[in-house]
Amino acid sequence: MTIGIHRPTQLVIDQSAIFQNIATEKSRLKPGVELFQVVKANGYGHGIIQVARVAEKAGATGFCVAILDEALTLREAGFMQPILVLGIMEPQYADIMAAQHISATVGSIQWLEEATRYLADAHQLAVHLALDTGMGRIGFQHPAELSQAVEYLEGKNQFDFEGIFTHFSKADSADTAYFQQQIGRWEAFMAVLPTRPKYVHVSNSATSLWHDACNGNMIRYGVAAYGLNPSGTELTVPFDLKPAMSLTTKMTFVKELPKGYSVSYGATYTAQQDEWVGTLPIGYADGYERRLQGFHVLVNGEYCEIIGRVCMDQMMIRLPHEYPVGTIVTLVGENHGKTISLQDVADYCSTIHYEIACGFTQRLKRTYK
Ligand SMILES: *Cc1c(COP(=O)(O)O)cnc(C)c1O
Who's near 69: CB < 8 A, 6+ residues apart? Predict the structure, then answer.
């Protein structure tokens, strides 16, 4: 993918914010509890390698990713820490994982059996058993199945039974009934476990911030590291999260439109009077969604409406008065004391900030401060 380095549009990532969001949470953990930073999806759009470097300095002792290729990216960059792949990979990749000391998530005995066909003799694959306590996504569903899997693993030195975990679907909600139900199922699983493996982990950001759950000894810390409240606006984070991502550009064209003149595809916006209009070099191909027509950006501390359809690579905004070409425009972040958060963008798009952050495409240059 071509990165737009010769244009003024950029995602600016504040590394000190990420550091602080991790270090603060780390300091709240009980002694002996490790923090694995979740850096899947290019570090939620922030850049996998850069985030991993900061996380390491802030006290993360391992990483979680979604797919094997993300784990390999970290290994190629020289990270030696434990890495857990949270998704189920196809058993044919078991040997690549074993060779690279990448831990696999397993949700069935059948997976283990198939993996043995691929594992080279000298190789041992570390596995984390996923328990489905109510997420309904992956994992063992009944304690009896877990017992069988643990028994199966006891006889096999092709595997190292390194971890056991579950994932909560409503840890970010004020209503804790479903969370409690999942805790109940978790306890039923734990009751049949003869010995605890090295890692027992149940906490994503929300669980770690708002629950004291299950005596885990590792957390899978994700979105909060990037300065985003996992609950959106429902719950208050116990410390100040610092958003790490801003998105800025500069106007490439400025003109006065006469009253009655229309803007962009479909001519969906018509000037009600003579209006100053700025053109920005960013569009939906950058992950700045088309449905953001009618939302706003910041110019010199003032909110300016996005007028007309957002195009693939450009979009137009209405200005209060003439501005010079090259004037800085903030699409996400702070500008002269005013702010547009990823949450604001997500609200306008009827989605969550997670989707906006990881939806920014590779074409956007990322710069680090
Ligand atoms: C993505 C993910 C996390 C991190 O979740 P956040 O809400 O970003 O903290 C933790 N565990 C699993 C299994 C995940 O898929």
Answer: none
